[in-house]
Every structure is written in C-alpha cells, then in structure tokens.
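Q: Here's a chain of 149 amino acids. Please give me its 3D structure as tokens.
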Amino acid sequence: MIGLSLAHLGLTIHDYRLLNKDMREFTSGVHLIAPNSAGSILSNDWHGAENHGEIKYLSPFYHDTSYYCLDSGSLYIGNYEPKYVYFPLQYRGGYWRFEYKGIIDYMLVWRMDARSDGVTRLKNDYELIHETRNLMLFRHKGATPGNGR
C-alpha cells in the first residue's frame, strides 16, 4: 500500500511539473491586460499541451482564461457555466442568456495555426501583442482598453 501511494505521488508530481510548464506559457501574457477590459479565447484544442500531452478528463486551458481577468477587474465573456442546470445559480426565464454587445478588447488564441481561418479573420480587427509557441494574444485595434465598458 505504501509502495502504491509513493508511486502515485511520484506520478502526480511528474504530471504537475509538466502541466506547470504549459500553464506558465499559457499565462505569460497576463500582465498585458488593461484593467476593466473584456477578453475571450479562440482555440480548437482545449485538451492539448506541449509538455504534458493530451489531458483526457479536464480542459485547464479553457478555464484558465479567467486568470487573465482575475486581477484587472476585467470581464471574461466566455464564462459558460451558468447556462447549465447543475450550476447553483439560476436566472429568471430559465438558463443563462448572455450576449456580450461590446468590443472584446483581448483575444487569446491557444494552439491554433496562425494561417487558420479563425485567426486570419481575427487579424482584421486585432493586433498581435504577445506570442509564444502555442499562444497568441491579440488586442482590438479600435478599442481603448480600460474604459469600463
């Protein structure tokens, strides 16, 4: 039992070390987000990671986008949880019916080819302000981040 526990601990430490490398890359542009702005993410690969490989049972890169808005008072418009029945908060008239009408100041692009249709269309209205191997962070060309929309 002790041997199995130690083996499990070793595997957990190894997995978290690899995942930490990927998360460090994913969050490398947090300091570029202006206060009181809006952000979202574009990705085709929520479960993939360069160092860790495929992550089967969760998608940390989808939820970690909220980290970009955490300390800046910004709005992450991709928060989808309230539309499901198991979410503890229910809204009048049924499920969540949120539609963001403002300009999205920042778009994160995770593990997508820069020549893909989605990224190419994004470049019409956004400028690239940060890039790593798997991450591109775009800022809207006409937006004034931090105006509290």
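Q: Can you summarize the key feature?
A: The chain has four helices and five strands.
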